[in-house]
Amino acid sequence: MPLEEQAFYYASQTAPNVDCFRKVTLRAYLLSYRLGPKDELDYFLVVGTSIDKCFEESYARALPNEPNQGFTSRLCNADDLTFLQEALRRQDNNGLIYPLHDPTLNFRQWIDRMAQSLTGKPTGCYLPEHSAVHVRGVQHNLAGIMTKAQLDATFNNRFYSLQSPFDFTQEWGGDYTRFALALMYGNGNVHNISRHQVRVFKSHEFTNNRHEMTYAGKDGIVFFQSHYPFNISSVQEQAQIVKTWPKDLVDVQNVYEMCMALSMQRRLNKVSAQLDSNTKSRIRTTLAKLAHLMGKQYINVRDLNHKYHFILEQMGITAAFNHVRIRGELLADTYQLRLSRRTNYIILLFTISAFALAALQIFQNELNKSSSTMDIIIKTGRAPCCDCACEAHTDSSLSLQFIGDSIVLQILFTIIALLILIVAYHFVVYPIIQKLHARLHRDMDN
Q1: Percent helix, percent strand, percent coil in the chain, to nearest 5
Q2: Residue 100, Ramachandran bin (φ over 0: left; ψ between -120 and 50: alpha; else beta)
Q3: Burial label, 445 (beta-carbon count in 10 A; 0-12, 13-18, 19+)
Q4: Dist CA 420 CA 398 (whole Å)
Q5: E runs forming strands in 140-275
Q6: Cβ atoms of residues 51 and 76 within 8 Å
Q7: For 1-44, how does the pLDDT look when each residue is reduced to its tens digit (9 = 90+)?
Q8: The pLDDT of residue 347
Q9: What HEC string does 344-409 produce?
């Protein structure tokens, strides 16, 4: 859903050590994405821009009444794209500003205003976290090209040519890996990037077409093209574009892949935060669902499906999943140990209770035997005393038997009450405590 657009200016270079100020128009969109048919929607605030070979406005100095630069000075070069990526990550008036002289708005303020209108909460902390960059480029001679129409015709003849003998590496020829690294991280100091870092970044590239190259890293995706992958013209390509998509998003590849990766990352972060408050069975079920999402076939084209998994791996999501999986399995084992220990305690209590009952029963039987013996002696024996004395002995025996029965009953009732409390704690109180603990964790996370 398109939100709004805003013009900005940023500092770039028409040539090494030749500064200029370029104008771009940024458009904001609210995208929704669903990992699966039953998953909840994820929403992303996306800002995009499109530079079609040259800039509409470019000025040598940030001064009032400064004339717009000529056509050749307004042509887009590699430094323009790198400095634009760097400007998008700046938080002050050293990045994207408007107007050019005496600016009253910068990119950070614009993003915060939109985020506040969407969430209804004060922000002040939003900056682009990831980017999807799509660069089309061909080698051609600019001599004699003085208008945008001539440049478009020259570019289209090469980019949509039915006969393209050159591969991407032959067409571009330069150090495109260094360029991709600068675009990925918004590093305007591209010429001073070490060779070692460039060699390491070579492992972040993927291609299944001789005219294309994809780089993926933790900060986003960079996609290079030197020729259209199918034999069609630019007019035919424009006719095939889905009209429901905003133009700026149609021109950029890997939008779906980026949404998929960020949704997966958000899911992993949510699961990781809730691991401590979940039960063993819940952890196992959640990890199984995540494993299915990580390993599923996202598209029914083998090479493109490999690209999805390559992006997940290079953006660190596969490693994050392995970390969550190991942590979840360890927590599940911990819960299993706690459950076994608690079960052992309950069995021990029942064993002690059974032993106590058996001992009390033996004690009760002995009391009953002793009482019966005393009764028999008193009733059958002849004492030299009077009848009153005999009656006193009989009453004393009956009183002793009554006291013994009362003690046994009190102990039995105490044991029964203790067992009831144990059962109530295990099946009623402890689950309530777990729910309160999980709710407290959710409130703290929010």
Answers
A1: 55, 15, 30
A2: alpha
A3: exposed
A4: 33
A5: 205-206, 212-217, 220-225
A6: yes
A7: 778 999 999 999 887 778 899 999 999 999 888 887 778 899 99
A8: 75
A9: HHHHHHHHHHHHHHHHHHHHHHHHHHHHHHHHHHHHHCCCCCCHHHHHHHHHHHHHHHHHHHHHHH
